[in-house]
Amino acid sequence: MKIIIDTDPGQDDAAAIMLALGSPEIELLGITAVAGNVPLALTERNARIICEMSGRRDVKVFAGADGPLHGRQVTAEHVHGRSGLDGPELFEPSFSLHDGHAVDFIVRTLMTEAAESVTLCPIGPLTNIALALQKQPEIAGRMQQIVLMGGGYFAQGNVTPSAEFNIYADPEAAAVVFASGVPMVMMPLDVTHKVLTTRPRIERIRAIDNRAARAMVEMLEFYRRYDVNKYGTDGGPLHDPTTIAWLLQPDLFQGRMCNVEIETTSPLTRGATAVDWWGVTDRDKNAMVIGDVDADGFFDLLTRRLANLG
Ligand code: BDR
Ligand code: CA
Fold it and tell me: What is the pLDDT of residue 310?
């Protein structure tokens, strides 16, 4: 499977990248960074740090959009810390960004790789993906699919009462992506809130003796604090790696095809995902919306694949 991960790391983004790098079925063509949890200068650096922690200085990392299509950037330092990747000791990466803009890399890759052979995995705001679709609309017909983390329906929102962070951070971009006609799989809060970083799950990762897993444990220890305080659960939702897990083991998940539209105008519900879960409209079913997961199976997969990052 050839994929591009579009990301704003983020400790849970790190888990997604490491899961991909530890999985031989996946060929990671590149990582495209976007402004999100923290500003772009930090997300692109964090992406390189994660690759280096995984022993993969060869991964191509590109910098992309430094803010949303419209309005001001929203960040989430209150969740991820000032660096975006608080927890482990961070360092200056020893390899550079790849030349060129992330959006150009996405367009070029989709236009040159075989049609329908590349999957995009956006796990941050959708700015880079929308810009690529606007720059070269032909790419919509050349993607295999988009598997993204974003939105919520019964779970509502995590950054406003009705909006999830990735969609709220750039609703206009999300609207472009959901209207693109590309086959889509959506991992909303409804499913990600079922994969919690409980103590026993973290301890199993701690038992792996490699650099990536040690760094992952330090990230998860930091990252769980915010959600444990907020929700009173044992652990925080590990949102982003659900996308990669779905590619590797779709039988862990359950969902249904739905129409999904993005609210861009209402000041109260901007960034909300209107998911027609019950099929009460005749609007096009444009996304496979995931609602359930075998959480233990998901953590087994993640733990096994982190162990491959020796
Ligand atoms: C999403 O927002 C970010 O803070 C996480 O990395 C994840 O992609 C969850 O709402
Ligand atoms: Ca993210």
Answer: 77
Candidates 7, 127, 149: which one to mutate for ligand 1, based on the most atoms within 8 Å of Cβ?
149
* Count of structural domains within the chain: 1
Contact predicate 221/202, CB 8 Å = yes
Nearest CA to 246 out of 80, 34, 23 is that of 23
Torsion sign across C-alpha atoms 21, 26, 30, 31: negative
170 CB within 6 A, ligand 1: no
Domain membership of residue 205 as a residue range: 2-306
Least confident of 5-9, 157-161, 223-227: 223-227
- In this prediction, residue 13 carries a pLDDT of 98
Say what the pTM is. 0.98
Which CATH number goes with the domain that contains 194?
3.90.245.10
Q: How far is the CA of 240 from the centre of ligand 1 (A)?
A: 7
Protein residue with its CA nearest to atom 2 in ligand 1: 165
> Euclidean distance between the first and final Cα of the chain, in Å?
22
Mean pLDDT for the chain overall: 97
* Sequence-ordered list of residues with C-beta below 8 angstroms from that of 230, at least 6 positions apart, any chain: none
The DSSP code for 113 is S
Centre of ligand 2 from the C-alpha of residue 16, in Å: 9
The three-class DSSP label of residue 291 is strand
The DSSP result for 171-209, as a single string, is: HHHHHHHHTS---EEEE-HHHHTTSB--HHHHHHHHTS-
* Residues in the chain, total: 310
193 annotated active-site? no
- List pLDDT tens digits, range 253-310: 999 999 999 999 999 999 999 999 999 999 999 999 999 999 999 999 999 999 999 7
Kindly give the number of the ligand 1 atom that is closest to the alpha carbon of 159: 10
